[in-house]
Amino acid sequence: MCVCLCFSGSRLLQPAQVCDVLKGFIMVLCYSMMSYVDYSMMYHLIRGQSVIKLYIIYNMLEVADRLFSSFGQDILDALYWTATEPKEKKRAHIGVIPHFLMAVLYVFLHAILIMVQATTLNVAFNSHNKSLLTIMMSNNFVEIKGSVFKKFEKNNLFQMSNSDIKERFTNYILLLIVCLRNMEQFSWNPDHLWVLFPDVVMVICSEVAVDVVKHAFITKFNDISADVYGEYRASLAFDLVSSRQKNAYTDYSDSVSRRMGFIPLPLALLLIRVVTSSVKIQGSLSFMCVLLFYLGTITLKVLNSIVLLGTSCVFVKEANMEEKLFDPPPSAASSRVNSRAHRTKHGSTAPPQEPTVDKAGISLASVIPQPADVAESAAPTIPKSDSDTFLTTPDEEEDDKIINADTGLEGDGLKHRTPKKDLLEIDRFTICGNRID
């Protein structure tokens, strides 16, 4: 199927377009499968459970959602790579069709899991004493206990920030699904919306308050400046801008979503399923309204992408990271520099030198750079810019650490510094949704 689109003599579609076609097929098949799932039966089945049991179920669903997101990203990556890999770099794998079927099964199961989560939240909203909703909101404050009093580095805080963004967006979609289902049950009576409004605001405010308190105390206890969030913003903006280049192999939203550990397919599938089942389309006027709504959403998406791209370019320019857009990936650059250093070390092109021995009888040839190494480091193959020092997040403890190599050297000891890590190099293609709790 996809091989014909990609490699029928010549490439008919770009890799990003092939991924979009695959997403379309997955959405169509999963939507046809979701039509057989009865939402009303699931609602009454969950409503018959006790409050404590529902609280435990909701916590289990949150953990399962993170595990599904991590495992599903690997499945989708395997599918996309298999469908778009070049001919000269083909690897041994099970094929496009089995990967496609596994992706369909994953998206369907993840959508069912999110549906159960939304149904549990709907039951909490419709309970008379609101006890379940109160217990679920108190679960957010337990999150403070699990994260505030632990050691955090700046890179771990970056992962937590991405996870919080993904979690808050998912909660907004779940609240939208709850409102749609309740409005359908009351025949779209606008008066009932004001009944739901206080509970929705209470859930959103509690989530925001917990995140603010959590990040405030984490930065306080770990002595992290608030300016680090500007670095996080610049890193996400760099991901979005770099994925819009002509040589990009993914859609512009994929790089940012994968950094946050967010997979939009199951959530979009569930939202489409709920909207189509809640809104009845009858008559030519209704179809015309749906068509206009679809065109409006496409227009809004285009405008949103333009605004995001322009804002991201401003952030990248303010961070002086423009030159990095034309550099090779950090992983490839570091591996090439290490390989050249390895060849210099074992090539023995420079004349051998006698090792220098200090007063303690320790050879310093292993710690003092040789002329060949100095020449290699003096002529790097990658252009350096101010952006190389912007997104580096060294810890103060690592900067002050002095290692004397068990020699007992005092005074002018040799300082061994831990190499600085770049935020763009950390977890670029891994799931960051695993919260550091």
TrEMBL record:
GO cellular component, one term: ciliary basal body
One GO term (biological process): positive regulation of cilium assembly
Disordered: annotated span: 326-356, 375-400
Protein localization: Membrane
Membrane protein topology class: Multi-pass membrane protein
Transmembrane segment boundaries: 25-46, 96-119, 262-279, 291-316
InterPro entries on file: Tatp1
Magnesium listed as a keyword: no
Keywords carried by this UniProt record: Chondrogenesis, Membrane, Osteogenesis, Transmembrane, Transmembrane helix
Keyword Transmembrane helix: yes
Family: Belongs to the TAPT1 family.
PANTHER family, per database record: TRANSMEMBRANE ANTERIOR POSTERIOR TRANSFORMATION PROTEIN 1 HOMOLOG
Name of this protein: Transmembrane anterior posterior transformation protein 1 homolog
Organism, scientific name: Scomber scombrus
